[in-house]
Design brief:
This protein is α/β, with parallel strands linked by helices. Helices cover 30% and strands 24% of the residues. A seven-stranded mixed β-sheet has the order 5-4-1-6-10-7-11, with helices on both faces. A two-stranded antiparallel ribbon has the order 2-3.
Length: 245
């Protein structure tokens, strides 16, 4: 029986439009990226956790707290391309792309996302989603996913999908927020990164649509936990308050 080797890759770059250098921003006495590495390292499914970065400052800090790094080209248009460069030289079965700006990610969520691919070799790719309120669904920064009865993604959009034709009739909100953590079979990741951007991907500015447009199925695991990404200094302050409580 082949024991599956699962590697967690955390893409981290310096140049963030809204918050340059956020990977090293101080959060309760530790750099943001250290919180992500420490939490990811607690996931039972991961054999190894590596930070993929193009910046010496980030690399030095990660090595300073005992984390592993892999330097990558600064030319990558996306985090997916960055982790694909690292995955090319890795001996592993599955790659988990963990966002470098989610310091509250739960180790159990990483394990939950990986579980379907560990138990079913026919699943090429997986991700997470969590329930979203009616009010939040209108925000284009909150990416929505619609999931089929078989648990696979039908579509991702910045628009509120599904559309509620006759208004909302009682019950729970039908919206799911997509959480940007991905699990790939290594060869699927390399294949995807080699493909040109697709029309829907470019219109919505959502990389995961490239997979759907090419017929690559994405298994969605729904979790009650909503991870909070740090895109701005205000987000960092919000997470700081939550952590100090």
């Amino acid at each position: 029986m082949h024991l599956m080797r699962v590697v967690g890759l955390i893409p981290a770059r310096w140049a963030s439009k809204r918050f340059p250098g956020k990977a090293l921003a101080d959060l309760c006495g530790k750099p943001l990226i250290q919180h992500v590495v420490e939490r990811a390292s607690q996931a039972k499914s991961l054999s190894e956790v590596i930070v993929a970065t193009d910046d010496v400052r980030i690399a030095e800090v990660v090595q300073g707290f005992g984390g592993k790094i892999q330097m990558t080209s600064p030319a990558h248009p996306s985090g997916t391309d960055r982790i694909a460069e690292v995955a090319r030289d890795l001996a592993c079965d599955l790659v988990v792309n963990i966002q470098g700006d989610e310091p509250l990610i739960l180790p159990a969520e990483i394990d939950a996302a990986a579980a379907p691919l560990l138990s079913d070799p026919s699943i090429p790719m997986g991700t997470l989603a969590s329930p979203l309120t009616l009010e939040q669904a209108a925000d284009p920064n909150a990416v929505k996913v619609v999931v089929g009865l078989n648990g696979f993604a039908l579509y991702f959009s910045r628009s509120p999908i599904p559309y509620l034709r006759d208004g909302h009739v009682g019950g729970a909100s039908p919206y799911l927020l997509h959480i940007g953590l991905y699990v790939y079979r290594r060869e699927v990741l390399l294949h995807l990164a080699a493909l040109a951007p697709t029309p829907l991907e470019e219109r919505e500015r959502l990389e995961q649509l490239r997979a759907l447009e090419h017929g690559i199925r994405i298994r969605v695991v729904v979790t009650e936990q909503r991870s909070i990404g740090v895109d701005t200094p205000e987000d960092l302050e919000r997470v700081r308050r939550m952590m100090s409580q």
